[in-house]
Amino acid sequence: MNKIIRVGDVMSEHFTLIDGLITVADALKLMNENNYRALIVNKRNDDDEYGMVKLSDIAKLVIAKNRAPDRVNVYEIMAKPVVSVPSKMNIRYCARLFDQFGLSSAPVIDNDKVVGVVSYDHIVMNGLMEVYN
Length: 133
Description:
Layout: H1 7-10, E1 17-18, H2 24-34, E2 38-41, E3 51-54, H3 55-63, H4 91-101, E4 105-110, E5 113-119, H5 120-132
Parallel strand pairs: 1-2
Antiparallel strand pairs: 2-3, 4-5
């Protein structure tokens, strides 16, 4: 693989920023309508950090604990702060970062703004496949 492929080349620009106060039930509706596996939780102010809620968080922290999705707010189960990557990062290093920290996806942040989401699926299907096509 001689060509450098960057996160910005493979990431999805389709994501939704949500407020941490919405319920898990509302988050699930958004995820289902848009075929998302994760949602980015917006910062409350400039000194705050972004969060993320994944389907696996909902499974582990709501369903497995027999909690009602319409009575749990996203902020109660989200990961925050999240590990993020810049769009200019080489996908090779992004994959290594994911492996090192046990991640499967991350928000892509440039200039303190979310510009996309990247996952192993994006890295392989949009990045590696580009090299072999």
